[in-house]
Amino acid sequence: LFLIYCLVFTLAVVPASLLMILLPVYAKEQFGVVESQYGFIMATNAAMVVLFQYPITSVIRRYPSLPVLAVGAFFYALGVGSVALGSGFWAFWLSMVILTLGEMVLVPTGTTLTANLAPADQRGRYMGVYSLTWSLGIGLGPAMGGFLSDQIAPVAIWYGGLVFGLVATLAFLSLG
């Protein structure tokens, strides 16, 4: 169960990596969003986490982990998929806001579930494997996004991220 969960979590990380790594290039090359504007998009992510992480965690801890993870993955999917509909700074800013809501749900829940699944004497190993899901997702996302951009169109990056996020959402629900 844990390894399947890690595979699904890897799929869930792919959309976030697309937004964090490929959006700056996409926004600048396709729509002329300058670096200082993109910096504000990233600052919005950080500010939201600082301001809202604790209240959101207080609410989501009351619910079973796998459905909560599905909600987080769904917000990741919506945030990344919405980039395909955007055409400038404010649209991309809103995409980041949506994705950040997913991040604040997915990350603490994923870490907590990993700790809860691990036997007490193997928590370090379980956390190590869980942390690999992030590395794999962050590596896979831009590679897949670059392929989609080169072979289809730059906007295909965001549709691909949407699909990964929706697959992860459904997989978390089925694991539950």
List descriptors.
single chain, 176 residues, mainly alpha, 6 helices, 86% helix
Mind explaining what this structure looks like?
With 176 residues, the chain is mainly α. It has helices at residues 2-31, 35-60, 65-81, 89-117, 123-151, 156-175. Helix 2 (35-60) runs parallel beside helix 4 (89-117) and helix 5 runs antiparallel to helix 6 (156-175). It starts with a helix and ends with a helix. 39% of the residues are buried.
Secondary-structure topology with pairs:
Elements: H1 2-31, H2 35-60, H3 65-81, H4 89-117, H5 123-151, H6 156-175
Helix pairs in contact: 1-3, 1-4, 1-5, 1-6, 2-4, 3-4, 3-6, 4-5, 5-6
CA-CA gap between termini: 11 Å
Mean pLDDT: 95
Q: Segments where pLDDT lies below 50 for 5+ residues?
A: none
SSE string, helices as H and strands as E: HHHHHH
Please indicate the percent range of residues in DSSP E strands (runs of 2 or more): under 5%
Quaternary form: single chain
Overall morphology: globular
Tell me how many strands there are.
0
Largest sheet data = none
Number of helices: 6
Helical amount among residues, as a percent range? over 70%
Structural class: mainly alpha
Q: Cα-atom Rg, whole angstroms?
A: 16 Å
